[in-house]
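On clarity, I found the account of how folds are encoded harder to follow than it need be. What matters is that the chain and its backbone geometry are given together, residue for residue. I therefore recommend that a typical entry be quoted early in the introduction. An entry of this sort, consisting of the sequence and the corresponding backbone structure tokens, reads as follows:
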Amino acid sequence: MPAGCNNNGSCGSGDCGSKLAVFDWLAGMALPDGMAPFDIIEVRFKNSRKEFFKTNGIAGLVVGDAVVVEAASGHDLGMVSLSGELVKLQLKKLGIALDEVVRKTYRKAKQSDIDKWQIAVDRENATMMRSRAIANELKLDMKISDVEFQGDGARAIFYYTADGRVDFRELIKHLADEFKVRIEMKQIGARQESSRLGGIGTCGRELCCSTWLRDFRKVGNSAARYQQLSLNPQKLAGQCGKLKCCLNFELDAYLDAIKEFPPANHKLETAQGIASPQKTDIFRKQIFYTFADDPGNFIAVPLKRVKHIFELNKKGEKAETLLTAKEIPQKEVMPDYENVVGQDSLTRFDHKKKKKKKKPAHHDKQKPAQKK
């Protein structure tokens, strides 16, 4: 049975929304006779780090296997995220040549390797907090957002964010003396930091950068303008403080739709006066215009009518009216409900009942009997 969302695909990691998971659409397909399996695998590590390694003759490596691989110094432990012929396409997509993959896979991870790696992982949170304190003592304008230990515990990568260039040579000396490991510093951007930390967006879902988005493209204010969004930084900014990545998701659809519309600064000349565009509803194919003598009255004009008037103006002619008689919106007549069946008002219980006045006390007493 497939893992994750229980669909009909092959979800090896059990998480379809993970950006580290790869759907192997070639899974289950046999290789042609005489063809050897591809000798390169894709291995994932903490966060979004992925690298490619040669199998070094180790057979039977499948997605999910823990493997010990070659590192810059020592060895590292990771999880196989992709194997087989699909790795060729991944290398081509990333622009990596086959001869550039030189590091090797040592073996499948043993229990002793996993135990050593787990001890290193348990040190990461305490190391990060202590390194932040050291950076504050040295008065460095930087923020250490994450720490990743190598599988053998001999090296640690410190990920940090900073607005400018930081001279952290003194910091490296203090960290090496404190933790007794080799130190590597890597600067990341605000978007990469947000993807590592995770969070909930304004849409109520997990951040795209921490679930499935891997490549961070540039997002500009023009993306908001094309989509007719107000340039409010508080609404357009994400958790990282930058413009939301999702502004690019529907941008291509807007760019294709806006090709039908006339230039943004055009004006329409009519017998009533000059109409200036104020707002565009792209998918309803309407443009709202106002006249100078009545700026508060927005008139919705269909795109077909706008093109007709625009062509008339090019010929030096003016349209008699901005809208034809058929295009003028009719006022909606609200139905007048009547109590045709004799029912009482629905709000009859909303009014408080008036209290009855009590009769005076002398009315309750019996009158004395008259003497005969």
Remarks:
- The chain has four domains: 1-108, 119-188, 193-257, 261-314.
- Residues 124-137 form the longest helix (14 residues).
- Confidence is low (pLDDT under 50) at residues 8-14.
- The chain has ten helices and twelve strands.
